[in-house]
Amino acid sequence: MQPFQTNPSAYFPIDYLIHLFEYLKKNNQYKIITYDNLCWQKNDYPEKQYPKEYNNWNKIKDKNKIYILFQHDVDSVPERTEKLLKEEIRLGIKSSVMIFNKRVNRTELKINKKLSFTNYNLDKKFLLRCQKKGFIIGYHMNAVEQSLHNLKVANKIFNADIDELREIFNIKYFSAHGGVTGKDNINNYSFKYQYNKNLIWVHNKISARFEKTFSDGGINNTNKWVNPSSRSLINFLKNMKPGRRYRILLHPQYYDKNMKPNKILEDQEWYKNILNFDYTKNNFFEMHLKQINKHNAFSFLRKIFKL
Q1: What's the 3-state SS for the chain?
Q2: CA 198 to chain centre
Q3: Rounded Cα–Cα distance for residues 98 and 42 (Å)
Q4: Nearest CA to 86 among 129, 122, 124?
Q5: Phi-psi region for residue 262, left (φ > 0), alpha (ψ -120 to 50) or beta?
Q6: Is pLDDT at 306 greater than 60 in this prediction?
Q7: Rounded to an integer, what distance in angstroms lies between the CA atom of residue 174 and that of residue 253?
Q8: How far is CA 104 from the centre of its chain?
Q9: Considering only CA atoms, which of 182, 139, 138 is closest in space to residue 157?
Q10: What is the pLDDT of residues 148-200, one digit of tens each?
Q11: Is 180:110 a contact under the CB 8 Å cutoff?
Q12: Residue 302: beta bridge partners?
């Protein structure tokens, strides 16, 4: 059983994700990809989920493989991302990592409508080493927040952020951070974008096409439309089909050895399974997917023989 701590921002044991990576790595049916593996075209239609890219992908894909793209949005506590990336390096898994150029003080912006920045201690040398190993380092775009929701100013900030990040990283992709919404529901995803094959918007309003995307984002959202049962990675994995590609969007700040149960999720059976599992004995995903497969097989037999 997981020894619970008092850290308020981590709600899952990091071993849970490590077990996921280990499970996928040893199963040949899964193929882990990054945004560099997609078939980007010179002229495409981002508002239609890049249909030319998707058509070309379908021509070259292996119909027997299940493709998974991992995206990590580094919203806070960058050192947790680094721990996760080190495990991915150990296993030979590559992911797509989205980072801020500057981290906005969300509380100050939301309450006082003022712009200020917080500490955001990225180990840029380590991320650069990851990039050299084939990881993607992209821009987690918060330029609209930085502009205090002025879209004209946001465009200038966006370009400045890209230029600054490109002094170190090969920035080819960006995703819009959720962030604080301003007047008329303007947010980072309200950014005005013209397609550029050298700088592609990949998530949040404009996105590449996937069969389905799993996200742990907004885990503390109490809105009724957020279904806690949809947060189960086991359920997400069991519904995957060969020849399709999927995205798993993770926020690494939620995963740590020091964690405490999330109040919104604590009544969910799948979440209880995660918290109570002994990660030193078996692989979490292998154990639980076997149970699901056995249950499905038995249900199938019951239908045939009317048991």
Answers
A1: CCCCCCCCCCCECHHHHHHHHHHHHHCCCEEEECHHHCCCCCCCCHHHCCHHHHHHHHHHCCCCCEEEEEEEEECCCHHHHHHHHHHHHHHCCCCEEEECCCCECHHHHHHHCCCCECCCCCCHHHHHHHHHCCCEEEEEECHHHHCCCCHHHHHHHHHHHHHHHCCCCCCCEEEECCCCCCHHHCCHHHCCCCCCCCCEEEECCCCCCCCEEEECCCCCCCCCCCCHHHHCHHHHHHCCCCCCEEEEEECHHHECCCCCCCCCCCCCHHHHHHHHCCCCCCCHHHHHHHHHHHHHHHHHHHHHHCC
A2: 22
A3: 23
A4: 129
A5: beta
A6: no
A7: 19
A8: 20
A9: 139
A10: 999 999 999 999 999 999 999 999 999 999 999 999 999 999 999 989 999 99
A11: yes
A12: none
Burial grade of 154 (CB within 10 A; 0-12, 13-18, 19 or more): buried
What token pair was written down for 86?
């080190």
Phi first, then psi: give them for residue 255, nearest 5 degrees: -125, 120
CB 66 within 8 Å of CB 29: yes
Question: Which pair of tokens denotes residue 106?
Answer: 């969300």
> 26-66, pLDDT tens digit by residue?
999 999 999 999 999 989 999 999 999 999 999 999 999 99
Closest CA to 217 of 30, 76, 48, 23: 76
Q: Which of 212, 208, 242, 247 is nearest to 51 (CA)?
A: 208
What percent of the chain has a predicted confidence (pLDDT) above 90? 82
Lookup: tokens for 44 = 């495409």
Residues whose CB falls within 8 Å of the CB of residue 190, separated by 6 or more in sequence, listed in order? 144, 149, 151
pLDDT (tens digit per residue) in 68-121: 999 999 999 999 999 999 999 999 999 999 999 999 999 999 999 999 999 999
